[in-house]
Amino acid sequence: MRRLVVAAIVATGLVLPATSASAQPDCVWRQAELPIPPDHQNPLVKGIGGDYTVASASYQGHKILRWYRGQVAVVGTPSAEGFHSPVDVSSNGTVLATRDGRGYVTSLDGMHKFLPDPQPDVSATPVAINGRGDVAGYATVNGDAKLVLWSAPGYDEARIVGNGMPAGIDDTGVIVTKNAARYLSPGFAWPLPKPAGATSVFVSSYENGVAVGSARVDDRDRAVLWGANGTIRYVMPSGIGYSGSSQGTVFGLTGVNLPTIWRAGEQVPLPNPWPMYHAGFVTERDTLVGSYLDQGMWDPRVAEWSCG
């Protein structure tokens, strides 16, 4: 029977999670606090890249915090005016952010560059940055979402390179969209494969060659992790995946907004406290980074969890 199941998996591309209780050892979570500057409140993690983490915070206005290997820095903004919000951070420390909705990047040396719009009457929204500093976003043109690419280091031009909204961009320049199109180069895309029986798929995030999202199968959402070259690695019994690593760890939701972690396709216990689902990420170190609230806390903290 198991051989027949394996044969069906190979034929369809569907990878089922292990069913044995001993297939995936329980996690013993170790929590390391990430420091927060004095008087800064409500830190919410927005993105990760390599050894960097970026978060929004409140202190005499809106601030941007960046951590590197446990050390925190307050990232300067182009001006004191306006609403500044981080979007993502690259593995070289460049922060992607917006001021009143307009995108800009801040490099490690503190230099800021605003991202131009693709057309005079069309604004664009940045979504993700890769290790080279290239930025992927989208713009609405004649009612349709279009992929926009700003190339580092100059960011001189906003090029429309495809259709849809990006879930992320990897260091080779591959962009995966929310509707599961994998753009290998401008204007050239392949769809990510659907699990067997899926009527639709949705990609939440794409980084380091790993796409994470969900598929609709039998009127039920099932978290999915796509690996290198867009192949399906794991389809979970339920849930929606939000962030994942090439090691096969996925962070997402099941039930009614219940944060959930899967490793090698199998659900494992959460750390306690656990990261908020909208402010938690899986790193390529196979750790969790995010903001969390513990009992009696009203202001979030930030931590990194590793699983032994």
Low-confidence stretches: 1-23
Principal-axes shape call? globular
What spatial order of strands do you see in the largest sheet?
Answer: 1-28-27-26
The tally of helices reads: 1
Estimated share of beta-strand residues: over 45%
Radius of gyration: 20 Å
User: Main beta sheet: strand number and arrangement?
Assistant: 4 strands, antiparallel
**Classification by helices and strands:** mainly beta
Strand/helix succession: HEEEEEEEEEEEEEEEEEEEEEEEEEEEE
CATH homolog superfamily: Peptidase/esterase 'gauge' domain
CATH top level is: Mainly Beta
Helix content: under 10%
Gross CATH architecture: 7 Propeller
The CATH topology: Methylamine Dehydrogenase, Chain H
Give a count of the beta strands, DSSP E runs of length 2 or more. 28
Keywords: Signal
Give a quick summary of the entry.
This protein is mainly beta and 308 residues long. 4% of the residues lie in helices and 52% in strands.
Please describe what this structure looks like.
- With 308 residues, this protein is mainly beta.
- The protein has one domain: Peptidase/esterase 'gauge' domain (Methylamine Dehydrogenase, Chain H, 7 Propeller).
- Helix content is 4%, strand content 52%.
- It contains one helix and 28 strands.
- Strands 1-28-27-26 form a four-stranded antiparallel beta sheet, with no helix packed on it.
- A hairpin with a 4-residue loop joins strand 22 (240-244) and strand 23 (249-254).
- The longest helix is centred in the N-terminal third of the chain and has 11 residues, at 2-12.
- The radius of gyration is 20 Å and the shape is globular.
- The chain starts with a helix and ends with a strand.
- The model is unreliable at 1-23 (pLDDT under 50).
